[in-house]
Amino acid sequence: MGSKANKPELIVNGKRLDGRAFDELRPLKIEAGVLKNADGSAYLEWGNNKVLAAIYGPVETQPKHMAEPTRAIIKCRYQMAPFSSLSEHGRTGPNRRATEISKVTKEVFENVVMLNEFPGSMINIFIEILQSDGGTRAAGITAASVALASAGIHMKDLVYAVSVGKIGEELVLDLNMIEDNYSDSDMPMAISPRNNSILLLQMDGGYTKEQLARAMKMAVDAGKTISSIQKEALRDVYKKVAERYESV
Amino acid sequence: MKNIVVPGELLEERPFRTRNTYVEDGKTYSMVLGLYDKETASVTPLEGTWIPHIDDTVVGVVSNVKNSVYEIDLDFHIRSIVIGGKYDRFEFKLGDVIQATIKDIEEKKTIILQYPRLLNGGSVITVTPTKIPRVIGKNNTMIKQIIESTKSRIVVGTNGHIWINGGDDALARAAILRIENEAHVSGLTERIKNMMEQKM
Amino acid sequence: MDAIEIVKSNYIKELLSKKMREDSRSMFDFRDISISTGTIQNAEGSAQVDLGATRVLAGVKLDVGEPMEDTPDQGSIAMSAELLPLASSDFETGPPSPESIEVARVIDRGIRAGNCVDLTSLFIEEGKAWNIFVDVYVLNYDGNLFDAGETAAMAALLNTKVPEYENGNAIREKRTRKLKVDNIVTSCTFGKVDNHIILDPNGDEENAMAARLTVATDKDQIRAMQKGLGGSFSIQEIESLVETAMEKHEFLKRHIEKHR
């Protein structure tokens, strides 16, 4: 949360600063299979967030002693580029925030990846935030999910993530950077759409029980849009090739 | 009609156990990005890693030799070896490209190969292993056609490595890379046939 | 090197003995180059370069800092390169590798020696100056990070706008003044495979090559050079490669200048 001293008015005439309604997502675009070398990849633009996710795996586990004989292990690295934010040059290398995000992201995918399919192997997830505009962990998870599918990894579901925050007493979906800095609360969630189970949940600020229930419903409702964009991104890769012939 | 499905996509409202799907609460879901054929209720993955089976032909490179145990790099997360014996005499050196057949997969930890054969000269290209069945084609039709047209010697490894030597190897490469790219689009056999005829 | 890479590098050698390259280029051809600038709006400048399948993204940030003691009327420029693990299965997470440090330092030398950025234009007021950070992010690796990186860094600097300054702070929402770039330096990297010399080696060719030479030039002069790997070049070879690099300067410069 930013300093409250020069907090801007985040809601004017019932609209948010960028003109969105309270339950409105920022524009979301996903493209799958963007990196040649990776086994799977996705590029995502969500508001002004720009995110690359890439998958390498399943590969031989390194270091070897970490290998699990009956299942695959997942490694995840989330990182923000030093030029990604509209503030000073960022330091490279893992910091405490990035380390935590990498951990909870890894745990999201441990839930849906069919780890038993690839015993002894390792699946690497790399998430690079090229430009940040609030909600980068949700953007990273949403992109990584598409990248995993495009790598042909066996999964129970195509997970998406989104955050719901609170400005004053108003619940707002998908906070951007300014809202994130000055909001009263923020709650990123990752959800498995087939049964709406919650795979990531982080929260700070203050919610009543009623607000919490409503926030989760907002996330699930928004998830329908996010899921369909994820699926389209995956289908588009193959449709584009197919269209070259079917239009003739 | 085949549909592109994604992981977690509901395929059937009833349980239906086939490859690349799973059943939860009595419903059948896809577990991969693939093509779903409703008639056969099967999902063919569009991407992904190789799944080794006994009797598969593989193409690999000798990456280690120790007491006539040859380690073969198949670009896979499980180690592969071929063991020379009394009656099974062969000798390879590091970096040799060989073809071999899978004899056994021991506890998902080691792939044991047999009938190794040196592939001399030529080059190796790598395609997504899920596309290998299309490269081979039904009853080997696709690969036969490429070999006949290009006069190249070609050995297709199910692990994704393909060895090509001699003939019009550039055309053979181009055809195989095209199959990889267009594997999911119907009419592929016809397009490759035209490609071969045009170049001849 | 993987066993399979050795096989592929043998193939490269065989092709070169017939004066051929994997992607049917001639010896001194670059792969296709495409540049897009300004994609990272949060950065003060940015450029993405695709050189064949090699893709790098350079981002520029300007921070308010103090001038160096020996140059009190100038700002500074710092270059770094990161070989991201998502760019290749050969790149690992962890502290900067010697390879990434070499790439950054070679790019830095060309741009610094060519006086590309007018460092005095970065002076703000007594004790304050802009410090420029250029980060070269490798997104997909298929050889020749030196030329892709130099091109991206140069294009990103041309794309850079200086924030306004107020009471010791950068006002990044207000960026009106273009960074003063006085010179353009371009870079040509050659690989030597057996006795064959090629320009702009791709990944397979890099695996096959025994020696590497990077030559950064502007219109008139050689600005930086770096010989790498265990092999060697003769004096005649170096003289002739420098010639080629100078000939290629206009071609590369035209690509970069489109984004001024």
Question: Could you please describe the fold and organization of this structure?
Answer:
The complex is a heterotrimer of chains A (248), B (200) and C (260). With 248 residues, chain A is α+β, with helices and mostly antiparallel strands. In chain A, 31% of the residues lie in helices and 29% in strands. Chain B is an alpha+beta fold and 200 residues long. In chain B, 20% of the residues lie in helices and 38% in strands. The radius of gyration of chain B is 19 Å and the shape is flat. Chain B starts with a strand and ends with a helix. The mean pLDDT of chain B is 90. Chain C has 260 residues and is α+β, with helices and mostly antiparallel strands. Helix content of chain C is 28%, strand content 35%. Chain C has five helices and twelve strands. In chain C, strands 1, 2, 3, 4, 5 and 6 form a six-stranded mixed sheet that branches. Chain C has a four-stranded antiparallel sheet with strand order 10-9-11-12, sandwiched between helices. The longest helix of chain C has 23 residues, at 235-257. At the A-B interface, strand 5, helix 2 and helix 4 of A face loops of B.
